[in-house]
Amino acid sequence: MRPIIPLLTALGLVAAENGIDAWLRYAALPCDVQKAASIPAGIVALNGSETSPVFTAGQELHKGILGIHHKDLVVTNTPTNGSSITIGTVDAFTSTGGALPEIDLKGDGFWLSIKNDSVQIVGQNERGALYGTFQYLSMLAQGNFTEVAYESNPSAPIRWVNQWDNMDDTGTHGSIERGYAGPSIFFADGLIVEDLTRVSQYARLMASIGLNGIIVNNVNANVNLLNSTNMAGLGRIADAMRPWGVRMGISLNFDSPRTLGKLTTADPLDEGVIQWWGDIATDLHDHVPDFAGVLVKANSESQPGPLTYNRTLADGANLFARAIKPHGDAIVMFRAFVYDNKINQTNWKADRANAAVDFFRDLDGKFDDNVVVQIKYGPIDFQVREPVSPLFGHLEQTGSVIELQVTQEYLGQQCHLVYLPPLWKTILNFDMKVDNKPSLVRDIVSGERFNQKLAGYAAVVNVGTNTTWLGNHLAMSNFYAYGRLAWEPTSDDVSILEDWTRLTFGSDRAIIDTITKMSMESWPAHENYTGNLGIQSLTDITGPHYGPKPQSQDGNGWGQWTRADANSIGMDRTVWNGTGYSGQYSSEVAAMYEDVETTPDDLLLWFHHVPYTQKLKSGKTVIQHFYDAHYDGAAVAQTFPKQWEAVKGLIDTERYDEVAFRLEYQAGHALVWRDAINDFYFNMSSIKDEQDRVGNHPWRIEAEDMELDGYTVIQVDPFETASGFHGIRTTSNTTAGTATATLDERFQAGTYDIAVNYFDVKGGRANYEIFLNNGSLGTWIGNHEDKLGYTPSSYPDGHSATRIYFRGVQAATGDVLRIVGRPDGGEQAPLDYVSVLPAGTID
Ligand code: GCU
């Protein structure tokens, strides 16, 4: 294989890549850069056991240096005096005669020294040595040959990922809750898969960014994971991940003693239940001797839990803590996502956001010492903007783990580029000011602020079998950055991104600049075109959490309310007049949020119920800010496809095209979002946009206004997700329909970009062709099933609404535009509108 890369490069071609190696590609450096480097002559890994992370480190280093430098180094496990890279633990290194300076390594930390042709990578433990090796490899792969000597320690001991993978029934691939990259790499047919190649590749990615633990199954746990076949399977998963220093744990279903064990109760204080869990823990330990721990979702979203038996949440957590205690250092991660999803909106004081503190505040000190509480970053649910969960300020005697989400459940589901570290950093850098002392969230979850041994990070990642892992090459920057921030939360989000970009796509300045600019613009843009001023994501919360559907927030028991009416909007979470939520923060923070004047604009509607005409600090009214922000955010997304063109030819065509497709899709979907939200609030408030853009689309031809043959007009639900609130679909499931329009005097002779908005629904691959005066402009297929990897909806709505362009078309008044749609299966070639756009116009 080796000569292929230089040959392709010489020909100006870049080899196709499918993303499987993510940022660990070890792409060859240019020859002149290779020559400048002094690479030691051999590798000494001070552990010869194949399951040891130090052994793995030696192998990985060999592979990396072969790829990056085309040097085939010999790996041994006996120390040498010659030029070498030595990898080992402090104990192994010093006992074989190695000398170290004064260093203070914490668990998983490492010492890295690069001097001339001698490199020492010394870990506090085996895992640390592997992390140091990946750090060295990352430098080499980026062409960084600086001499260094430093120690590096992780900010927190717990740095885990959570997979929400399901053990579906026989005959199905394991699905993943909120996973957007194909089925599970762990489960199929209700069992653990035989071939665990992807599992160890996943562990390799995790290790390379310092992650040390994983929960492999959904928090909504299936009890069958605990049957004897699957117990053995769990042992195999742990074996596959162990050489990478990744420890495995599982989510438990609280009701298992009843559903699996056939007991009459799951009461945490019942002797039979205690015994049952004790036996399970023993069994788990027999199969997985270094079992990491259990994650428990209880009394949440209608699930049973200790409260079902009139016991406290601490009783529930301690049940598991005591069951696993005899078997090593496994821990219980008890989720604070405990709330009632059937609360009553007619009660002005009711508030789901209050739940975590209400449930947990008085339990501080009541948990056993091997329990940590896992807390979502905000009090609701991974929204585009939330205040920090106030619970972080209340647990002084129990460790807190912050739960982040790499999977973009509410943030575009990997179909939209949203670089998340800037969001995470607003949370991690927030000062809770507990007891009037500096209390940054990152210092709370490091264990430092309250002096806790157990604390840290968990992120819902949800990789799938897709070779890109997350379904979108660019989404992987979030995974990479998650590990880097869990290790060192003060790291700069731009430099992390630049490292990732160099490792993933190469060091060309144009690549780095393009990806950095787009990524750093992406979260603010997404917030702008989805939900701003702290109103939350405004997506369909009772559906797939993807496209716009603001009305789904209200009128149900889920408590993600906006309380929008004809005059006003927002949740009153003040103490003086509202739900009292602001009082859950320390006094200084509470005072800031209590007062509308001192609440930051980006959280205004989170904390206050105000008229649409309320003036913001910017001087704009709330409603005008909504309109403007949605136009601004969508406009930024329109620039992404063009920005991406700058990297054409600099990266392989395969990855270039896949990303290009998604950015173009995002640009179209951002317009769907913009129009839906603006139309919805215009409709509700009757307040016009000062710039008269909302509801006014000068370049559109509505499908329902076209001459239809074999097509029929439909009312789209929710109304705001279709232009003019209507669309069309073919009258039959089998016969093509035609929609025709003659261009009126708006369209003077010239060059136009023609955009067609249609709905790509689940259950078929409809075929479309567009003509101008009988000349075909092109065809397309409603195949997001294949191109996005999934289709979020079976209906024409805000999830399925999408746009395709035919650019540079010569057209004039009187020309006849025609679209022929051929239905397929349940997809009746639905259309919304056509925009005939003069150059530079967005409509
Ligand atoms: C969200 C998400 C669910 C998930 C839940 C949880 O509500 O939509 O799919 O089960 O969070 O975190 O437990």
UniProtKB/TrEMBL annotation:
One protein family per Pfam: Glyco_hydro_67M
Signal peptide: 1-16
Span of domain Glycosyl hydrolase family 67 C-terminal: 471-693
InterPro entries per UniProt: A-glucoronidase_C_sf, GH, Glyco_hydro_67_aGlcAse, Glyco_hydro_67_aGlcAse_N, Glyco_hydro_67_C, Glyco_hydro_67_cat, Hex-like_dom2
Alpha glucuronidase N-terminal domain residues: 22-136
Annotated catalysed reactions: an alpha-D-glucuronoside + H2O = D-glucuronate + an alcohol
Main location: secreted
Keywords, sorted A to Z: Carbohydrate metabolism, Glycosidase, Hydrolase, Polysaccharide degradation, Secreted, Signal, Xylan degradation
Glycosyl hydrolase family 67 catalytic domain mapped to chain residues: 143-469
One GO MF term attached to the UniProt entry: hydrolase activity
Localization terms from the record: Secreted
EC code: 3.2.1.139
Enzyme class: hydrolase
Family that this chain belongs to: Belongs to the glycosyl hydrolase 67 family.
Role, per record: Alpha-glucuronidase involved in the hydrolysis of xylan, a major structural heterogeneous polysaccharide found in plant biomass representing the second most abundant polysaccharide in the biosphere, after cellulose. Releases 4-O-methylglucuronic acid from xylan.
Family annotation (PANTHER family): ALPHA-GLUCURONIDASE A
Name listed for the protein in its UniProt record: Alpha-glucuronidase
